[in-house]
Amino acid sequence: MKTAIITGAAGNLGTSVVRKFIHEGYGVIGTVSSNNSLVNFPKDQFERIVVDLTKEDDVEKIIHATIEKYKKIDVAVLTAGGFAIGKISATNTKDIFKQYELNFETAYNIARPLFEHMLSLKEGRIFMIGSKPGLSTVYGKGMIAYSLSKSLIFRLAELMNQEAKGTNVITSVVVPSTIDTTENRKSMPDADFETWVKPEIIADTIYWYCSDNATAIREPVIKIYNKA
């Protein structure tokens, strides 16, 4: 049984990714924050870990313990993060740092030890969740702190792929358009929901990139826009 770690496992996207990988026969470790509830998944395929991903030492201890228990982590999908709006005039450095913590630290703190583990085995896949505002400033207007924090995800993936050259360790950034969730529908009731991308589609796409069909693909940015 292959093993995957999914962060933000209680979120809309995280839950869909967990469900997909369990369905495909993986053993899954899902991280949640202490105040998150979680769907009940099969106990023989799922382990729930409560951790604050902004606490680097705590995350590193948990990852090392997980590696010792499972011996090999094949896939990591890092869905944890947060969102905020705000123009430059309304955004101070505290706002930026908060988004940096939510979107970059939560990814980096867990990606670093997993990356080292995968490099030692010379194989593994890491998926981080980017965003269109992080990919291009064209989409970042009015979301300064969020856009800046997400832009670092792309640079991190590039650097990791440079370090992993010559191995089968691949880091990709998944860039969805607006995700079709109940919360997004409530906040944007007049939007065209048909143009949005369902979390299940994102999960299916991520899994495909872990399959034998994608063994030779080195795709650093995976855009999942549907009709947007």
Report on the structure:
- The chain has 7 helices and 7 strands, in the order βαββαβαβααβααβ.
- It has helices spanning 12-23, 56-70, 93-121, 132-135, 144-163, 182-187, 199-208, and strands at residues 3-7, 27-32, 46-50, 75-78, 123-129, 168-176, 221-224.
- The protein has one domain (3-81, 104-136, 151-224): NAD(P)-binding Rossmann-like Domain (Rossmann fold, 3-Layer(aba) Sandwich).
- Helix content is 42%, strand content 18%.
- The longest helix is centred in the middle third of the chain and has 29 residues, at 93-121.
- It is of the alpha/beta class.
- Helix 2 packs parallel to helix 3 (93-121) and helix 3 packs parallel to helix 5 (144-163).
- The mean pLDDT is 94.
Structure characteristics:
single chain; 228 residues; alpha/beta; Rossmann fold; 7-stranded parallel sheet; 7 helices; 42% helix; globular
From the 3D coordinates, which CATH architecture would you assign?
A: 3-Layer(aba) Sandwich
**What is the helix/strand order?**
EHEEHEHEHHEHHE
Fourth CATH level, the homologous superfamily: NAD(P)-binding Rossmann-like Domain
Number of strands: 7
Biggest β-sheet: strands ordered side by side in the sheet: 3-2-1-4-5-6-7
Q: Number of DSSP helices?
A: 7
Extract low-pLDDT stretches.
none
The domain tally reads: 1
Task: Report the mean per-residue pLDDT as an integer.
Answer: 94
Alpha-carbon Rg, integer: 17 Å
Helix % is 40-55%
Give the overall form: globular
- Gap between N and C termini, in Å? 37 Å
What would you call the structural class? Answer: alpha/beta
What fraction strand? 15-25%
CATH topology: Rossmann fold
CATH top level is Alpha Beta
Largest sheet: 7 strands, parallel
